[in-house]
Recover the amino acids of this structure.
């Protein structure tokens, strides 16, 4: 059963909080495949890696970046870096298909001028997850964050402004897009579970592309 499908329908369910927008099936399979091919090219220049956290552990998801800056974590903490600390080279440029995808989605959003300078690419193997956190390393929180889901389904957690607040799960699928801006920009969020074997793409696991205006 295919769900209703349009880049330009706002399919956010009534229970979703203000500023959190879920565009289910926003991206068709051809677009998803084109994004995946671009990810493979980025990975060849800036390999996926699990990053060291302040607490001394490793992130569960493996990460890389493209754009003018990349999100990074090590013993010194969380920040954006203009060059990849692993290679010393600038991050790969944001691919044209990434830019087109952002522009197409955001044109019909409350943030039509959103112009990201960074894309954090997370890869979740079937057992990976991400604990509740806020995205707070960007310079200006008036800009939203746009997330593209590729590969396996996942339960995405949406909490409140405090870590202790109750959260709920939204099941996201390959081709879905989420926007977190305005009153939801600083909500805690995370990835509770990946559902292996649900990917319509040639990937075992889940990618998220998270577009940010970082600098
Ligand atoms: Co986040």
């Amino acid at each position: 059963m295919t769900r209703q499908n349009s880049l330009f329908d706002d399919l956010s369910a009534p229970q979703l909080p203000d500023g959190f927008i879920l565009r289910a099936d926003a991206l068709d399979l051809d677009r998803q495949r084109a994004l995946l091919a671009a990810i493979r090219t980025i990975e060849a220049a800036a390999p996926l890696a699990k990053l060291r956290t302040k607490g001394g552990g490793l992130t569960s998801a493996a990460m890389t970046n493209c754009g003018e800056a990349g999100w990074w974590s090590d013993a010194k903490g969380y920040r954006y870096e203009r060059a990849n600390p692993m290679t010393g080279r600038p991050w790969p440029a944001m691919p044209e298909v990434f830019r087109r995808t952002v522009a197409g989605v955001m044109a019909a959003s409350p943030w039509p001028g959103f112009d990201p300078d960074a894309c954090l690419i997370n890869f979740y193997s079937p057992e990976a997850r991400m604990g509740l956190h806020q995205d707070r390393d960007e310079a200006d929180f008036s800009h939203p964050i746009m997330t593209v889901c590729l590969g396996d389904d996942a339960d995405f957690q949406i909490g409140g402004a405090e870590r202790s607040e109750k959260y709920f799960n939204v099941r996201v699928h390959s081709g879905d897009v989420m926007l977190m801006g305005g009153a939801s920009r600083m909500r805690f969020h995370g990835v509770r579970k990946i559902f292996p074997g649900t990917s319509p793409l040639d990937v075992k696991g889940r990618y998220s592309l998270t577009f940010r205006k970082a600098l």
